[in-house]
Design a protein that fits this description.
235 residues, 79% helix, Arc Repressor Mutant, subunit A, three-stranded antiparallel sheet, Four Helix Bundle (Hemerythrin (Met), subunit A), 10 helices
C-alpha cells in the first residue's frame, strides 16, 4: 500500500512539474517573439529548441499549442512551426479596438484610483525609465504590461477586463514591435510620462485621449514591419 501511495504522489508531483515546464518553455519562447529575437516567418525547429531549452519534445509541443492559441506562431499542415507573420489591415483593426478599450479603462480608473495606487504606478514608471536607459526591452515590456493591467483592474469593470484579456496576447506582440525602433521607443516612454501626469491629476478625458493616441502612434511602425514581412514572403 505504501508503495502505491508513494507512486501516486510521485505521479501527481511529476504531472505538476511537467505542467510548470511547459509553461516555462512557453514563457521563454513568448519572450523571444515579443523581443523580436524570433522575427515573423522564422521557423522553429524542435530538435534545436529542445537542445537549447533542455527539454523533451512533449513540453515543447504543448508550449507550441499555447503560443498558437495566442496567435504568436502558426502550426502548419506539414508539421512545421513558424512565427506568425504580420498583416497590416488585421493589426490596424486590432489596435484601433484595443486603443479604445484601454482609453475607456483609463477613464474609469481615474474615478476609482487611490493615492497609494498612483504612487505604485509612478514607481513602476520609474522602473521603466531605468530599463529604457539600460536598453533592457523585455523587463521594460513586462513592467509596461503591469501598469496597463493595473489600470484595467482599477477600472473595476469585469466585462471590459475579460474582453481586454482575450486580446492581450496578440496585442502584446504588436505593441512590442514598434519599440524595436529607437525613436519610437523614446516617444512611447515620453507618452507614458504624460499619461501618468494625467492619471495623477485624475483628468479622465485627457488620459483617455492620451491612451488612445499612445496605441495608435505605433501603427506606422507596425505597418512598416508588416510590409517587410510581405517582402520576405515574396522573395
Amino acid at each position: 500500500m505504501k508503495d502505491a501511495e508513494t507512486s501516486g504522489s510521485d505521479d501527481g508531483e511529476g504531472g505538476r512539474r511537467k505542467g510548470r515546464l511547459h509553461l516555462e518553455v512557453a514563457r521563454q519562447l513568448r519572450s523571444r517573439v515579443l523581443s523580436g529575437e524570433l522575427s515573423p516567418g522564422t521557423r522553429l525547429r524542435e530538435g534545436q529548441l529542445c537542445s537549447e531549452l533542455g527539454v523533451s519534445r512533449t513540453p515543447l509541443r504543448e508550449a507550441f499549442r499555447t503560443l498558437a492559441a495566442e496567435g504568436l506562431i502558426d502550426l502548419l499542415p506539414n508539421r512545421s512551426v513558424v512565427v506568425s507573420e504580420l498583416h497590416a489591415p488585421d493589426i490596424e483593426h486590432l489596435m484601433v479596438v484595443f486603443a479604445n478599450l484601454e482609453g475607456l479603462a483609463a477613464e474609469l480608473a481615474c474615478k476609482n484610483i487611490t493615492d497609494a495606487q498612483v504612487t505604485e504606478i509612478g514607481r513602476l514608471l520609474s522602473q521603466m525609465v531605468d530599463f529604457y536607459e539600460r536598453g533592457e526591452r523585455i523587463p521594460y515590456l513586462e513592467t509596461n504590461f503591469r501598469i496597463h493591467r493595473m489600470t484595467l483592474e482599477i477600472a473595476a469593470n469585469p466585462v471590459l477586463f475579460n474582453v481586454w484579456q482575450s486580446l492581450v496576447p496578440r496585442v502584446e506582440r504588436a505593441r512590442a514591435l514598434p519599440n524595436l525602433d529607437p525613436k519610437r521607443w523614446t516617444a512611447a516612454l515620453f507618452e507614458h510620462s504624460k499619461m501618468f501626469a494625467a492619471l495623477a491629476a485624475r483628468d479622465a478625458p485627457l488620459l483617455a485621449r492620451l491612451t488612445r493616441e499612445h496605441f495608435l502612434n505605433g501603427l506606422p511602425f507596425l505597418a512598416a514591419q508588416a510590409h517587410r514581412s510581405s517582402s520576405r514572403r515574396a522573395q
